[in-house]
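In this section we walk through a basic example: taking a raw amino acid sequence and producing a predicted 3D structure, encoded as discrete structure tokens. The instruction is simple. Fold the sequence below.
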Amino acid sequence: MHRARVIFQITNKVNSNDRFASWLLSKPQAAAVPVYTSRPKSSTAAEPFLNGSSSAYVENMYNSWLTDPNSVHASWDAFFRNATAGAQPGSAYTAPPNLAPYGKHEVPLTSLVPAGGMPSIAAGSPINEKIIDDHLAVQAIIRSYQIRGHHIANLDPLEIANYDLSGRNPREVIHNSYRFDEADMDRVFKLPSTTFIGEKEKALPLREILNRLEQAYCNNIGIEFMFINSLEQCNWIRQRMEPPNVTKMNNDQKRLILARLTRSTGFENFLAKKWSSEKRFGLEGCEILIPAMKQVIDVSTRLGVESIIMGMPHRGRLNVLANVCRKPLHQLFTQFAGLEAEDDGSGDVKYHLGTYIERLNRVTNKNIRLAVCANPSHLEAVDPVVQGKTRAEQFYRGDNEGKKVMSILLHGDAAFAGQGVVFETMHLSDLPAYTTHGTIHIVVNNQIGFTTDPRHSRSSAYCTDVARVVNAPIFHVNGDNPEAVMHVCNVAAEWRSTFHKDVVIDIVSYRRNGHNEVDEPMFTQPLMYQKIRKTKPVLEKYADQLIAEGVVTAEEVKDVKDKYEKICEDAYNQAKQETHIKYKDWLDSPWSGFFEGKDPLKMSPSGVVEETLVHIGKRFSSPPPNAAEFEIHKGLLRILKARMEMVENRTVDWALAEAMAFGSLLKEGIHVRLSGEDVERGTFSHRHHVLHHQKVDKATYCALAHLYPDQAPYTVCNSSLSEYGVLGFEVGYSVTNPNALVLWEAQFGDFNNVAQCIIDQFISSGQAKWVRQSGIVLLQPHGMEGMGPEHSSARLERFLQMSADDPDYMPPESPDYEVRQLHDCNWIVANCSTPASYFHILRRQIALPFRKPLILMTPKSLLRHPEAKSSFDDMNEGTSFRRVIPEEGVAAQNPQGVRKLAFCSGRVYYDLLKQRRDKGLEKDIAIARVEQISPFPYDQIKAEIAKYPNAQLVWSQEEHKNMGSWSYIEPRFRTLLQNQKHLAYNGRATAASPATGSKAAHNKELRNLLDEFCVL
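The resulting token sequence is shown next.
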């Protein structure tokens, strides 16, 4: 009977009708808490099991307890003892010390144990609900501070912002809300394991608990971290933020902060004195940024970082260049002198420029490389560029964990909340092919965007809320408390080094001047700027504080200030000696040794020996070496077989030509990286660079990565569904090392619309503005094939419109005509019609003695078109890229009899070819293909026209007249022809939409185009 009674108690305990379970679930603090039981001690963790648990399981536990009471959890030991002593059903349960009222991964119920230990509960004795309620209330208070404390922290130096959503203190952090009165304030409560306010103390009076929570979470630092889904990471932050006096600095540290703050303030004051009417987007109001950045760099350097790539908007850039990077001041001051540029290009305003510096960090006594990327006024556009550059440098250094190379991104509050590319970039942070293993984000929070109040510029409580998506901790800090800022910077740098994840420092400050120095802010923010006018600069506040503490004297403060002003004056006088601006001094990643010793007009051959083509072709056409164990899709077996047949027949299609271009470059030691949405397979299921095991998850094989034992690495990676962010990333990757082929492929060519900012600001004009060359390749699927307005045109006309060659100037012919044109252009735009052209133009990117972006219209239907094939003879040694492919059929044999010479580009050639054949006009019409549209191949087009003296000239295109190539080529043909001949247009009429959505309308337009083509 005794044994039966205990078993009854056990089963009653885990039953949903158990009186203790009913009581516990009735409590507000435990409303969502399951009734927990525990495994035997041999288990690694407590395991909750709910209604319907196996009675056999608990009976076995009871049997174990009978043998050895220490073999079960303490809560079960207490239960079995009480049940054995005769406790009534439902009354034998004693709350276990580690029961978690807020989830087993968060808050153990150690605080349920009074300071003197858990009292035994005699059989039938009532539960002391007051003790339990009070301890649960303390738990709730601690957790509430951790979750909501930042809402009532003193973050704003101007004391005008209220970050609490309700406009008043959260009820959860007011102890009176938990029925505590003054008499309870000196009661001692045991602290849970998820708080570190006690340091080594395990229990504290309630008064001291509240005081320490206030200091940790509601002073000048507000922390958002409790949304992070890792107990380890949450505890790591608590351990560094909760103990008393964590922000306290020693006197040497305080003097260093003062010196750096003096330089930051002194630089802005010097510029304001010398160039009072110049726009410089100074840091006044957030001068603490400079000491903050230097602190992050110091700690990161101490933790092993050797190279830091930074991106930032224009506010504070000159100060960062001067006092963080230590760029020579005379080079900065020269930018104000209005001098002409010594380098080619148009240049850019001073607060858009970047730089690269390698210097000794005097605090850590280690060398550090610092780069600030150039970027335009599109404030956050540089974010993905920095990440791509960082990833590339990590790749080339073999820094697979990001321990040596890291990125810092600076943001304005309005831009951080408002610009979508911020999210796109942060969403790359943990993707395997894009991660940089943690970025430190620093927000210069001016609490205003140009003239827009935060209430009108974002819907979230904070400008930093986007970072919550990637579980990045967010440290809000009052910019007028330098020591609090330094502590936050220390923690952020250590976080990044420890967890290799993003972290955000939100420096809440203000903007002392308007949007720029000549702007009047009182027009739109009169009350804010009345408060700002009365606010002492942070340097004065901190200097007064240190003088009062006896750390420095007023004379020492003045001496530091005077010394820096003299440094600025000396640099100012040196700048007067300069006669030109040298934009090469502002490169953010110089390509050491790339240009030296090269003939800038000599291009290496792009043809390849046939043995290499065959080897690559066979490897690319073969199943994985362990084909017996690696099961691939049956459809792929047919594709591989067809590829092998092409290799044996010495022909290639588009995918095979691409693989041969990539593979031959890999053989030569050139790293190839192909990135974009679905590039591993290819949008049109043509590429298949990554083969997937059909029965084993994540088992893949990439033939191009295993062509040769000593080849360069090949990276092919599907990206997130982002164009703006990913293209920016690849641009950054491409500028890091010139000896790499970096390609971004749009899923459809029109998707580049979403990345237009990167195209306009970094790719088209990057070299002109910043002397920054890039060899990035944009693959843009293009072709009018009845797929509707969004999947037809890659907007070829836009790229051509941005080409910088003069339509009224025809360069004189010379032996190096092709290379000279490429040297002088801003980018290359091509619409290839053959796999061989694609092969050569990709290899030419590396063969050139310089780097230019390549915009390449790529096909869709031509990927499998039976006539869109090339022979090995077109790719062997001695062959090269043909900018114009002349007529090679019957018409070329009797050029005098040709009545029409049609020029075209891309896939429309095959439509024209078929129409000519169907109409029996092979002798009457010659067709020449312009493979490279820009820079315009005047020399080869001129030669082709000369062959057919009796032919009328026409330009045929599939796009509408106001789109495609017509607007670009027509004035250049006019310059070439000098009014001796007329060039007619053959194509679709003008339109607002790039294509019709009706298949029938599409076919009618195509018939009209082809019928007109045949009119002689």
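Looking at the output, two observations stand out. The chain has five domains: 2-127, 135-241, 251-586, 610-874, 890-1013. Confidence is low (pLDDT under 50) at residues 1-55, 96-123. In the next section we compare this with other chains.
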